[in-house]
Amino acid sequence: MARYTGPLTKKSRRLGVDLVGGDAAFERRPYPPGQHGRGRVKESEYRTQLQEKQKARYTYGVLEKQFRKYYEEAHRRPGKTGDNLLQILESRLDNVVYRAGFARTRRHARQLVVHGHFLVNGHKTDIPSFQVSQYDIIDVKPKSLETTPFIVARETFDASTVPGWLTSVPEKGRILVHQPPVREQIVVPITEQLIVEYYSKI
User: Fold this and answer.
1) Which of the four pLDDT bands, split at 50, 70 and 90, describes residue 41?
2) Residue 196, CA atoms < 13 Å, CB-side half-sphere
């Protein structure tokens, strides 16, 4: 259950991308933190690849050991390793809850999952890293439907933000998984080939 719990704005500024989504502090100061944040940084191929890996890790809230396991699993699967890696990350239960519009951020989605608000195919599932599969049905527990997070989710729901591989029915508290996500449906500012290159060297 370990995860990074520190300030994400600082990580956003270090990596040059909004990891939270709508982070006003990052928008005001989109340069690295610290006394020398606006100074020139010596770029290198390794540094670029490492930053891309860190960007993916912090975007999805995954620690290094687990991220490495995801990469190894992606490498074993047929097809492009980078595409497979993003598919595995996108298929995490906490990310699906976020993508379906039931949470403001992935951190918020993780909290909702850990607190036991969701059923997957009728079974209580409180593991954020749980991998959803094609035709899975994710339901908000009936007694959770009228709690504040899900009332707010219904009132603020925007169907245009839900990717095509999911159907979200907020009034019923239901998410349907039609298929595994394909690369074109994964809208994260990550160049996965750089991550593959990083791991191929270590």
Assistant:
1) low
2) 14
Block residue for tokens 């980078």: 82
- What would the mean pLDDT of 174-195 be, rounded to a whole number? 96
Assign 1 a pLDDT band (cuts: 50, 70, 90).
very low
Going by DSSP bridges, is the β-strand pair 118-120/174-177 parallel, antiparallel, or unpaired?
unpaired
- With helix as H, strand as E and coil as C, how does the chain read? CCCCCCCHHHHHHHHCCCCCCCCHHHHHCCCCCCCCCCCCCCCCHHHHHHHHHHHHHHHHCCCHHHHHHHHHHHHHCCCCHHHHHHHHHHCEHHHHHHHCCCCCCHHHHHHHHHCCCEEECCEECCCCCCECCCCCEEEECHHHCCCHHHHHHHHHCCHHHCCCCEEEECCCCEEEECCCCCHHHCCCCCCHHHHHHHHHCC
113, exposed or middle or buried, with CB in 10 Å at 0-12, 13-18, 19+? buried
User: Does residue 196 contact residue 82 with C-beta atoms inside 8 Å?
Assistant: yes
Tokens of 87: 């598919």
